[in-house]
Amino acid sequence: MKRLFLTVILIIMLGGFSFGVSGEGKVVKLPLPRYKSNVSVEEALNERQSVRQYSKAALSIEELSQVLWAAYGKNKWSKLTSPSAGALYPLTIYVAVGEVDTVPAGLYKYNNKKHSLIWISSQDSRSLLSEASLGQRWVREAPVDIIVCANYRITTSRYGNRGSRYVDVEVGHLGQNIYLQAVALGLGTVAVGAFSDGEVKGVLGVDEQPLYIMPVGRLE
Ligand SMILES: Cc1cc2nc3c(=O)[nH]c(=O)nc-3n(C[C@H](O)[C@H](O)[C@H](O)COP(=O)(O)O)c2cc1C
Fold first, then answer.
1. pLDDT recorded at residue 5
2. What DSSP character marks residue 100?
3. Phi and psi of 46, rounded to 5°?
4. Atom 27 of ligand 1 has which residue's CA nearest to it?
5. pTM to 2 decimals?
6. Beta-carbon contacts of residue 39 (< 8 Å; ≥ 6 apart)
7. 172 CB under 6 A from ligand 1?
8. Residue 25: pLDDT band by 50, 70, 90 thresholds?
């Protein structure tokens, strides 16, 4: 009886702690983000630039966690780090993981409520995303690509046609957060907007509108 109990506990623990395991609905818990840094906002703004060349080194799970939190994570007010018209938050982040320590390569969705990654597939999608982006090399070479998608209906159902403008503006907020957080971590990124919408949707297997692909990597 005791052995059965221990086995069940072990199975539950392994199920919630999914490294190396894949399957529908599996979750990778992300470490908590840091709320302090030695790099000021002013320094990050002063150093921000688009970076298209990365070292071959993998990112750590802490770095990925920090970048995702900065992009669209929950802050101390239980709001998100990016503002949103009517607090409707129409954006979703997908993550194409190639080389991130302790996170198996694959496609994931960022769950900002739980600060975790939801496994979608074990396919390393970076090359396909690069092809969909007119062959842009940095999309293929970065250890991770962050893909920001929008569900316009969430915002247009309240604001009508003007809602589309709001959604387009919102992805800019999110993108800038990634740029600034990347600088503070000594990483580089670039906002990629040139891609085939249909092909990116196909790679992700979603109906939402892709707006940005942001490769993130270590500086050379
Ligand atoms: C909406 C938008 C789309 C962009 N699309 C691409 C792109 O597809 N590929 C790319 O390499 N850079 C892209 N960029 C980055 C710009 O080329 C870059 O911001 C610009 O050259 C200024 O350089 P800086 O970011 O270093 O200041 C895009 C930037 C924005 C804001």
1. 45
2. B
3. -70, -30
4. 49
5. 0.91
6. 183, 184
7. no
8. low
